[in-house]
Amino acid sequence: MAETGRTRASSHRRGDSGTHWYERLFRITSRFARRNYPATRLCTRTCSRGYLRRSKNISFKWGDRGRAIKRQVDIAHSRGSLEADWVVVATDAYTKAPWPELRHEQIHVPYFNVATRPLPDELQKSILPNREGYWDTKKILSSFRLDREGRLIFGSIGALGGMGSRIHRSWAKRAIRELFPQILDVELEFEWYGIIGTTGNHLPRFHCFAPNAASFCGYNGRGISPATVFGRVLVDHILGNVADADLPLPVTTPEIPAFRALKENYFEVGAQLAHLIDARF
Ligand SMILES: Cc1cc2nc3c(=O)[nH]c(=O)nc-3n(C[C@H](O)[C@H](O)[C@H](O)COP(=O)(O)OP(=O)(O)OC[C@H]3O[C@@H](n4cnc5c(N)ncnc54)[C@H](O)[C@@H]3O)c2cc1C
């Protein structure tokens, strides 16, 4: 969320014992942003999480601010309110509210990674001598890379929850053994999974939900660099340095893809079936 206007946490003054940690963090980040970005105060995700989850109402109005007529966003909250000139919706695949259509247009694909213990240097060199990232082109794809400490990070489609956990974890161990028999003892130290938001044509989207409420989203599992670049472009757009026509994507209206729920189940169930059989024979 980016804010160029005045912040009003009406029921909480600095130092109030009831002040939420995210409001205090917001003040600190606001001060930092004011110093470093004179025209824009950038609010952290943490702050927006606190505010948006607890928000009762978000309204958009045209207000008379000084001599200029400006658009303004009011976020009403159980513990106060926030005025902002812009809302950047950066909740992407995890969106629940206040614009659920952003989630509805994405087909969720779960993806997990497991990490081995740090491997000795010789083993690392025999796996990825130049520490490249690898992934294949199968529908239920696999990917691997080495982390800074030399762990092999091995991943594929699937959620490490419920029945899937055991299936995916033991597949990962078998697949690592098959690909890299030189690792004699595959011990997993960490594991995690998350949601990848995919779109019908595999391209990201740019939406405007209201005047001055915008979102880039739907990176199809390749969002780390693009989301960073688009974030910078959006800040420039908010500051008035990038015109609508020069944004990297056209403004579109979120559309629900056909058979969304079916496709989401297909990915998880399909991945479980594939991993149940794969790398056994
Ligand atoms: C296991 C896995 C591996 C991946 N590997 C790669 C890779 O190698 N390369 C690559 O480019 N991409 C990869 N991706 C995809 C990449 O992580 C995403 O494309 C990227 O993170 C999208 O960035 P984002 O900022 O749009 O959204 P996110 O990083 O998903 O951030 C959204 C944030 O919004 C928060 N949020 C949700 N609801 C609310 C709310 N109501 N209020 C406030 N905050 C909220 C969430 O907690 C989250 O922190 C991977 C994804 C997964 C799951």
Q: How would you portray this structure in words?
A:
The chain is α+β, with helices and mostly antiparallel strands and 281 residues long. It folds into 2 domains: 147 residues, no CATH class; 106 residues, no CATH class. The strands form 4 sheets. Strands 8-9-10-7-11 form a 5-stranded antiparallel sheet, with helices on one face. A 3-stranded antiparallel sheet has the order 3-4-5. It has a 3-stranded mixed sheet with strand order 6-13-12, covered by helices on one side. Strand 12 and strand 13 form a beta hairpin. Helix 5 crosses helix 7. The longest helix has 18 residues. The N terminus is likely disordered. Bound molecules: flavin-adenine dinucleotide. Flavin-adenine dinucleotide binds next to helix 2, strand 7, strand 11 and helix 6. The site of flavin-adenine dinucleotide (FAD) has 26 residues, from helix 2, strand 7, strand 11 and helix 6.
What's the helical proportion of residues?
Answer: 25-40%
Number of strands: 13
Shape: elongated
Class by alpha and beta content? alpha+beta
- Record the strand order, biggest sheet: 8-9-10-7-11
Q: What characterizes the major β-sheet?
A: 5 strands, antiparallel
The proportion of strand residues reads 25-35%
Give Rg in angstroms: 23 Å
Q: What's the SSE pattern?
A: EHEHEEEEHEHEEEHEEEHH
Oligomer, anyone?
A: single chain
Are any ligands bound, and if so which? flavin-adenine dinucleotide
Q: What is the domain tally?
A: 2
Distinct helical segment count: 7
Mean pLDDT: 79
